[in-house]
Specification:
This protein is mainly alpha-helical. It contains 2 helices and no strands. It has a domain at 10-55. It comes from Hoeflea olei. Pfam families: DUF4169.
């Protein structure tokens, strides 16, 4: 056995500390933006979704089942 002795209590604390820091970083990113930045990001996401939906090859007709269409 040529391994390093590890104190499990300290290893758990180190792991938990790293997890808390990762959560804090994620929260700083999500909540650390101004209202204008959030609205701009939301508008860009909405536009990207609309553009994606508009580029579909065969948009489905509401009220019909597209599965019955013959090729």
């Amino acid at each position: 056995m040529s391994g390093e002795v590890v104190n499990l209590r300290m290893a758990r604390k180190r792991r938990d500390r790293a997890a808390r820091e990762a959560d804090a970083e994620r929260n700083r990113f999500e909540h650390g933006r101004s209202k204008a930045e959030r609205e701009l990001a939301r508008a860009r996401n909405d536009k990207a979704e609309r553009d994606h939906a508009a580029s579909r090859r065969e948009p489905g007709v509401p009220g019909t089942d597209d599965g019955d269409r013959k090729a």
